[in-house]
Amino acid sequence: MLDVTVGLKELNHVSEIHIIAINNEVKELLWLLDKEFDGSPAIKTINFNKKDTITFDFNFTDEAITQYSLPKIYLYEPNAAIMKSGGFNLISNRFRIDKLHKHSHLYTSEDLINFPGRCFRIIRTIPYHKKDVKSYLLKRKANITTRNFTENVSSLKKRWKISDGGMDYLFFTTLENNEKVILVCVKV
User: Fold this and answer.
1) Mind listing the pLDDT tens digit for each residue in 19-29?
2) What is the 8-class DSSP label of residue 67?
3) What is the C-alpha separation between 87 and 83, in angstroms, rounded?
4) CA neighbours within 13 Å on the CB side: how many for 117?
5) What is the residue-wise DSSP string for 92-131?
6) How far is C-alpha 186 from the chain's CA centre?
7) DSSP secondary structure letter of residue 178
8) Contact call for residues 20 and 28 (beta carbons, < 8 A)
9) In terms of pTM, does the model score above 0.85?
10) Whose CA is closest to 41, among 59, 62, 19?
């Protein structure tokens, strides 16, 4: 699928970009071109699912100061439309939540908020060291996600003999201090 920044380099007079996802899977990028327009395009994300429709809009040149922190009580993962938009720093600012690392695109807070994506309660943070991981993960059943991590999901499943499913969600990620960790979570 065409990347937003690449598209903006190739197309002239883009006034709006609509990123459309259905059930957290990006289906379309729509580019509104206006030969009279010579500004910064509006980015409009929308995620349709069975329960509701979630939007997140911003201007391509909007900037925000991002706050970073170690994991707190709650973890947030933006929906696919927002991830495609690249509005990562704006999320932290608009929702007043902290980011775990510049490239992880995971967010955290002390209090649960209404968030345009998946929300989790962090049960435990495990440093990614063989001794710590082996005692907790070996032959476990869990849902795995990697964000800014050196290994992919399939190699982690194979290495630690993890099978899909269960109530636990394991986020393998890197924190702001460059420490690799596993966040053990349950969905909220």
Assistant:
1) 999 999 999 99
2) P
3) 7
4) 21
5) HHHHT-EES-TTT--EEESS----SEEEEEEEEEEES-HH
6) 16
7) S
8) yes
9) yes
10) 59
